[in-house]
Amino acid sequence: MYKVLLLNDDFTPMDFVVSVLQRFFAMDRERATRVMLQVHTEGRGECGTFPKDIAATKVEQVIAHARQHQHPLACVMEEN
Question: For residue 62, which of 15, 35, 45, 75 is within the disulfide window of CB 3.0 to 4.6 Å?
Fold first, then answer.
């Protein structure tokens, strides 16, 4: 299993991060806001734990979506 993490940057708007968490990780607004604040204050936030192939797909989807909207949001996976 692999954890999918979002990493903090100084450019991606907080609202965009919340929308990514809702869209790609099926979080409600309250949970997405908590994870976004964790990313903002701690430098990273956990989006969920998935099998390797699903985690890799989610990382790719988030990065592609962020680039499409010209945001440098970083999404990575690490073994749990």
Answer: 75
Chain position carrying tokens 């990575």: 76
pLDDT band at 34 (very low <50, low <70, confident <90, very high): very high
Is the Cβ–Cβ distance between 73 and 20 less than 8 Å?
yes
Residue 80, burial from CB neighbour count under 10 angstroms (0-12, 13-18, 19+): exposed
- Give which of 43, 42, 20 is closest to 33, Cα–Cα: 20
Determine contact, residues 48/37, Cβ cutoff 8 Å: no
pTM: 0.95
What pLDDT, on the 0 to 100 scale, is given for residue 35?
98
